[in-house]
Amino acid sequence: MKVCDRNWQQVEAYLKTDDRAILPLGSTEQHAQLSLSVDTILSEKISVDAAEPLGIPVFPAVPYGITPYFLSYPGTISLRQETYIRLVRDILDGLRHQGFRRILIVNGHGGNQPAGSLAIEWMADNPDTSVKFHNWWNAPLTLAKVQEIDPVASHASWMENFPWTRLADVVLPTQQKPMVDLAYMRALSPDKVKALLGDGNFGGYYQRSDEEMQAIWDVAVEETRALLEGGWA
Amino acid sequence: MKVCDRNWQQVEAYLKTDDRAILPLGSTEQHAQLSLSVDTILSEKISVDAAEPLGIPVFPAVPYGITPYFLSYPGTISLRQETYIRLVRDILDGLRHQGFRRILIVNGHGGNQPAGSLAIEWMADNPDTSVKFHNWWNAPLTLAKVQEIDPVASHASWMENFPWTRLADVVLPTQQKPMVDLAYMRALSPDKVKALLGDGNFGGYYQRSDEEMQAIWDVAVEETRALLEGGWA
Amino acid sequence: MKVCDRNWQQVEAYLKTDDRAILPLGSTEQHAQLSLSVDTILSEKISVDAAEPLGIPVFPAVPYGITPYFLSYPGTISLRQETYIRLVRDILDGLRHQGFRRILIVNGHGGNQPAGSLAIEWMADNPDTSVKFHNWWNAPLTLAKVQEIDPVASHASWMENFPWTRLADVVLPTQQKPMVDLAYMRALSPDKVKALLGDGNFGGYYQRSDEEMQAIWDVAVEETRALLEGGWA
Amino acid sequence: MKVCDRNWQQVEAYLKTDDRAILPLGSTEQHAQLSLSVDTILSEKISVDAAEPLGIPVFPAVPYGITPYFLSYPGTISLRQETYIRLVRDILDGLRHQGFRRILIVNGHGGNQPAGSLAIEWMADNPDTSVKFHNWWNAPLTLAKVQEIDPVASHASWMENFPWTRLADVVLPTQQKPMVDLAYMRALSPDKVKALLGDGNFGGYYQRSDEEMQAIWDVAVEETRALLEGGWA
Amino acid sequence: MKVCDRNWQQVEAYLKTDDRAILPLGSTEQHAQLSLSVDTILSEKISVDAAEPLGIPVFPAVPYGITPYFLSYPGTISLRQETYIRLVRDILDGLRHQGFRRILIVNGHGGNQPAGSLAIEWMADNPDTSVKFHNWWNAPLTLAKVQEIDPVASHASWMENFPWTRLADVVLPTQQKPMVDLAYMRALSPDKVKALLGDGNFGGYYQRSDEEMQAIWDVAVEETRALLEGGWA
Amino acid sequence: MKVCDRNWQQVEAYLKTDDRAILPLGSTEQHAQLSLSVDTILSEKISVDAAEPLGIPVFPAVPYGITPYFLSYPGTISLRQETYIRLVRDILDGLRHQGFRRILIVNGHGGNQPAGSLAIEWMADNPDTSVKFHNWWNAPLTLAKVQEIDPVASHASWMENFPWTRLADVVLPTQQKPMVDLAYMRALSPDKVKALLGDGNFGGYYQRSDEEMQAIWDVAVEETRALLEGGWA
Question: What is this model's ipTM?
Answer without folding.
Answer: 0.97
